[in-house]
Amino acid sequence: MSESTNPSNPSPSRSGGSSDRMDRRSFLRKSTVAASGLAALAASLSPLRKLEDYGSLEEFMQKHYKELSAEEMDQVLKRIEREVERQYDVRPHVQDLKPMDGVEFVYALNLSHCIGCRKCVYACMAENNQSRDPEIQYIRVLEMPNGTTDLEQGDHRYDPETVPRKGHYYMPIQCQQCENPPCVKACPCRATWQEADGITVIDYDWCIGCRYCEAACPYWARRFNFKEPHLPKDQVNPNMHYLGNRPRKKGVVEKCHFCIQRTRAGKYPACVEVCPTGVRKFGNILDPESEVSYILRNKRVFVLKEAVGTMPRFFYYFD
Amino acid sequence: MKAGAQNYFRFLRRCIGVAFLGDWRYYAWMGALTLITLVGINAYAKQFVEGLGVTGMTDHVSWGVYIANYTYLVGIATAAVILVIAVYVYRHQEWHDVAIFGQLLAVAAIIMSLAFVMVDLGQPLQSWHMLPIVGKFNFPQSLLSWDVIVLAIFLLLNLHICGYLLYCRYNNRKPRKWFSVPFVFVSMFWAISTHAVTAFLHEGLGGRPYWNTAIVAPRFIASAFVSGAAFLIIALQVIRRVTDYKFDDQALLMLRRVVQISLIVNVFFFASELFTEFYSETLHNSSATYLYLGLEGHNALVPWIWTAVGFNLIAMVLLMSPLTQRIGWLDVACVLAIVGIWIEKGMGQIVAGFIPTPLGQIVEYTPTFNETAVCLGIWAFGLLCFTVFLRMSVPIVEGKLNKANEEESGYKTSGAAGLSGASAEGA
């Protein structure tokens, strides 16, 4: 097509008769059609000019998390640090802390004393660099009327002057870190998997954004970046993990990862720390002395949607 | 070997040449399709820049009209093999050529469904991650990985069969049995499994009670045979009207019987599902309640689904009456069935599965203008492909485009007159 649009194409036989003229006319017509076709295609593609960040070739060609050697991982972490600094003017510390031996994390939540203040929701956002616009939250708190555990009767948008409201209890729900996670099964490219310490993680650079995991999750724990995430520079948490709270890009899925950047360094998740009533408990189930081990042994514990067979590592209890 | 390759390239070149020839109706139709495709490309470019936020999808309803169309079109592709079964299993040799048109429809439908998957991805440039070898193929766990495989192979099978049969016809020689018949039989089996996998994609999710039922796959196949055969009836009539390739009503009436029976089966499955959902009154029927009756004042899908039910029932009554042995009435029934199944399968089956969310929240979904433009663009592109395939294959089947007339430079001018546009109105 590019050849035929060349206007300086000299005609070899100028003395030609009518058939030659016909050829030239049809040639001209064809080039006009081809040129206007290309112009129309270019015009239809014009929104692409607004594309600001295409991501680097390095990022595009990057291997799956599990296939990166130690040196390659080092390069990747440096690249991410550079990119975060360029975008947010904050020098982050991006780590790839591995699971600790003999550790399997478990969460327990005491429904008897949760007051539904949603402090966990916002502490989670401050810790995990979620987009503020559009706002992404990992924890959803339901206001449940006493007498039922049917989630459909819960209120997601409760907004009274003070909590707790009489006749209600509160049910915070986040990723249940299932032992048999349907999301991991669903992912067509192994971008999400379960780590040795029980945390189901996502490689944000490997996710293709098909959202099949989102459809598969029975707990509505996963969030998709439908738009470019916006995070104010002064709200960035610079302590980051590759599989955790490093800033995400549009078009990938994210979710609660038990604050992997904190818990693998021996700290509690942000939601546990902030809870004013102390109903959130976190620890190592393989350690018989741990608080969670005690709770699982001695309290009336249940899991959400047990019938689905997901075997959550997130336990609820009353006392 | 070299001569063979040369011959093949000459064949391809002539096919492509023919695709650009036609009367004014052909150019108008192709021009309109190109225009709509460009509008779709424009809308997709916007989505590419701004993200899937330009669609009506949310974390609550995370799949919408893209996956709905995808599901519907895999069904169309599946059903396109009906004619192949008629020819190769029931030995209706006289429909041999018509069957090729059916397979070309399958090819166009698969191209469209692959496009619908691509536009649904948040990171389309990374889609290579789900390929075997270069990416990280989650096989056999992920049904999406199964889907990638079965669709790709189904596309290759159909391309091979149509391409080979047409090339043989072009060269005026008999197709070698071993090089075509085994593929044909594999493709019959493959068609059904392809659509079954699409259904398994939904019914395998334990966390979505509306989908997590064994009736989804049988219902998908039944409704696919309805919409696919109805689509073929319309498409074949367009071919008969605008080209000089003629065939009698027998093929159409055979397809009528397929639509008739599969529509009755589909309505039966549908009734069986409704009974299970509503009689047992478990908490698992909220999606069905939302779809058919509305839930807590939310009822966006209710008028749609009752339209679909109405269309399907009217089409069924029409098809059972002798009225539809007349082609005009048959067309009416087919259009009703095509639209009815699209709503029932697309918006009904896919969107309703997301409402309410697993945490019981009701958030409704309406496709945006941009999203609709992308869909129309893909449909236009698919019809464009189908038209081009027909434009190439009809003269080959008729024997007007063959190796013998390769040297006649006159084909372009004299031949074109006899070969008016391949397809002039919406199939």
Strand content of chain A: 5-15%
The CATH class of the domain at 117-258 in chain A is identified as Alpha Beta
Kindly identify the CATH topology of the domain at 117-258 in chain A.
Alpha-Beta Plaits
Biggest sheet architecture of chain B: none
CATH architecture of chain B: Up-down Bundle
Query: Percent range for helical residues of chain B?
Result: 55-70%
Content of β-strand of chain B:
under 5%
Helix/strand structural class of chain A:
alpha+beta
* DSSP summary: helix tally of chain B: 14
Poorly predicted ranges of chain B (pLDDT <50, ≥5 residues)? 409-427
What is the total number of structural domains of chain B?
1
Describe, in plain words, how this protein is organized in 3D.
- The complex is a heterodimer of chains A (319) and B (427).
- Helices cover 28% and strands 15% of the residues of chain A.
- Chain A has 319 residues and is an alpha+beta fold.
- Chain A has a domain at 117-258: Alpha-Beta Plaits, CATH 3.30.70.20.
- In chain A, the strands form 5 sheets. Chain A has a 4-stranded mixed β-sheet. Chain A has a two-stranded parallel sheet with strand order 1-8.
- Chain A is elongated and about 100 Å long.
- Chain A starts with 17 loop residues before the first helix and ends with a strand.
- The relative contact order of chain A is 0.17.
- With 427 residues, chain B is mostly helical.
- Chain B has a single domain, classed as Up-down Bundle (Formate dehydrogenase/DMSO reductase fold), CATH 1.20.1630.
- Chain B has helices at 2-19, 24-50, 65-79, 82-88, 96-120, 143-170, 177-203, 216-242, 250-280, 286-292, 302-320, 327-352, 369-398, 411-418.
- Residues 409-427 of chain B have low confidence and may be disordered.
- At the A-B interface, helix 1, helix 5, helix 6 and strand 7 of A face helix 2 and helix 6 of B.
